[in-house]
User: Which sequence fits this backbone?
């Protein structure tokens, strides 16, 4: 892929300052009750979320999309699961949190604190200025690439190790084009396509 540098795609890291990680982005899990192999929990500050249960080998055992007008409350009957460790993954538009489920004999317990959290990048289009923000809590390597409609690479951030990644791109420099933004972080890839104005 050829690299195109004929226009100023990248405007700068600090051109626009936005607080994209405030308030409603964070949800919390509250374990309400554990009785036998039944666990009841609530997700506060959230009314739309994907919930999945995985075994230690990464095999999905259960998944559901939950959309509620109020906070989310769920009770899971885990009697069908053999003894072992499992993971509840809660995924919103902004983050993925993983909680540990321990099934021992006739009991099951769910951790109220996540064992891992990954924040998803936020892409905002303001009249052709694309703002990409990502909260990289553990400062793991992040890479952002941008491709045009013909799949030519027009931008490569190289490796970013910042805790708060913020970039602004101007896609209005060339008319009738669309651009695909690809962010990679650990084993996850996030993609979003925008058309120029």
Assistant:
């Amino acid at each position: 892929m050829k690299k195109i540098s004929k226009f100023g795609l990248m405007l700068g890291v600090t051109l626009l300052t936005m607080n994209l990680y405030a308030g409603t982005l964070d949800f919390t899990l509250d374990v309400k009750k554990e009785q036998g192999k039944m666990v009841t929990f609530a997700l506060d500050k959230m009314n739309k979320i994907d919930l999945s249960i995985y075994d230690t080998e990464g095999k999905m055992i259960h998944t559901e999309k939950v959309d509620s007008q109020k906070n989310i409350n769920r009770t899971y009957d885990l009697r069908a699961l053999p003894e072992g460790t499992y993971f509840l993954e809660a995924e919103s538009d902004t983050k993925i949190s993983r909680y540990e489920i321990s099934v021992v004999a006739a009991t099951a317990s769910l951790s109220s604190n996540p064992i891992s959290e990954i924040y998803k990048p936020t892409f905002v289009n303001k009249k052709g200025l694309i703002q990409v923000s990502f909260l990289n809590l553990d400062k793991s390597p992040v890479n952002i690439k941008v491709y045009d409609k013909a799949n030519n690479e027009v931008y490569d951030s190289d490796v970013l190790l910042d805790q708060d990644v913020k970039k602004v791109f101007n896609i209005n420099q060339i008319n009738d084009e669309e651009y695909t933004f690809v962010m990679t972080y650990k084993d996850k890839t996030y993609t979003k396509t925008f058309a120029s104005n």
